[in-house]
Amino acid sequence: MPLNDINQEHWALITGATGGLGLEFCKLLAARGYRLIVTGMNTEKLAQIREEIKQVEMALAGDLTDPVCLANLIKTLNENGIKLEVLINNAGFGLFGDTLDQDTSENINLIDLNIRTLTALTLAIAKEMKARGSGYILNVASIAAFMPCPSLGIYAASKSYVLSFSEALHEELKTSGVHVTVLCPGPVKTGFWQRAGVADNNHFEFAFTPARAVAQCGLQAMFTNKTVVTYGWINKILVLTAQIAPRFLVRVISKKVLQSLKN
């Protein structure tokens, strides 16, 4: 399906839409004629997005880790007769630091958002897409999905789940007309780092990739039914190295790199 062969009858839902990759997904899909439904926690930013992007027809504020909030989102789609053409599961966050020093409730919330919410929303929407015989799902993971990441341990583990789950679902649905793609970006200068608790992320300056280019890469991969996509040659080398190098070596290198953020 060509990227420009889209009319205003097509709907897209983007979670975590208030900044970074989520906002870029909104802009890019709006430019292609999609009618957008966006979610986020920040009501002011959602209102601003709706003002700036005219294709945003619903801006739903709430915490998707709350089962009631998630159920209401799906109920809103059903009650309005909205059949999504595109689902982008972008909402997620990480926590940086020694795992045992982190707040346990925050880590459970991380798991709820990065795993449970993504899974529940994907399954609900994918069933309808399969019945219709068409649809596109893009799940946002990370290059951290390919390696253990001391100091980002639970985040990396959650993204490993997203990677594995998305790959499996891609295979199950590949002949159904439903495209499932997982985007694994490297470091992107967004609000992720501040939320994670990293005061200075300039150590990764050499590896940072622009959010817009990463979002465009993800959409292109989704529309052409690629399974896994990583943007940038540095990140591709890191992923390849993590897959072929001994696990103990990957752990040691990952630990040293992430520990540099504590200095």
Strand and helix layout:
Layout: E1 11-14, H1 20-31, E2 35-40, H2 43-52, E3 56-61, H3 67-79, E4 84-89, H4 104-132, E5 135-140, H5 153-173, E6 178-183, H6 192-196, H7 211-223, E7 228-229, H8 233-244, H9 247-259
Helix pairs in contact: 1-7, 4-5
Give the key terms.
263 residues, alpha/beta, Rossmann fold, 7-stranded parallel β-sheet, 49% helix, 14% strand
Please describe what this structure looks like.
The chain is 49% helix and 14% strand. The protein has 263 residues and is α/β, with parallel strands linked by helices. Helix 4 packs parallel to helix 5. The N and C termini lie far apart (48 Å).
Termini gap = 48 Å
Say what the CATH topology is: Rossmann fold
Choose one word for the global shape: globular
CATH homologous superfamily label: NAD(P)-binding Rossmann-like Domain
What's the tally of helices? 9
Sketch the topology as an H/E string, one letter per element: EHEHEHEHEHEHHEHH
Spatially, the strands of the biggest sheet line up as: 3-2-1-4-5-6-7
Radius of gyration: 18 Å
Into how many domains do the coordinates divide?
A: 1
Low-confidence stretches: 1-8
User: Based on helices, strands and strand pairing, what is the structural class?
Assistant: alpha/beta
User: Taking all residues together, what is the mean pLDDT?
Assistant: 88
Q: How many DSSP E strands?
A: 7
Helix percent band: 40-55%
Task: Work out the strand percent.
Answer: 5-15%
Which sheet architecture does the biggest sheet show?
Answer: 7 strands, parallel
Protein name: SDR family oxidoreductase
Keywords: Oxidoreductase
Pfam families: adh_short
Family: Belongs to the short-chain dehydrogenases/reductases (SDR) family.
